[in-house]
Fold:
Amino acid sequence: MEFFRKIDLKTTEQQIQKSLTLSNLEEISSDLFNLTEPNDEEANIGGIWGEFTLSRHNIRGGIRFALVECPNALCWTITAGFPPDSDSVIIHLTINQKNRNQEFIEEIDEFLDDMSQCLIRFFEVNKV
Structure:
């Protein structure tokens, strides 16, 4: 399944990669938090779905996060600068299931809504 959020924020791939780190995870989402001190590419986190290793990788256009041990292979990207809306940030979340129960889908929607609001606040406060 795929989920998307479009955020009206003008930023760049470089700004996303430099600014959105595992160290400031709690500014990016109020649903996730570090359990230990993260490094640049991996963190032990807690959140609405339990405890996982969260990986972070630079990709073309931004970054990709993945819950390494997640049975749904949940991952999401935060990117900017692509047509047809080059002046927006796109969050794209995927899981490896074609169908899930409504409660899980609602949790994903709430997670993405929260992350969208947190990113708007983060980019406004930090003038990124």
User: Anything to note?
Assistant: The first strand starts at residue 2 and ends at 7.
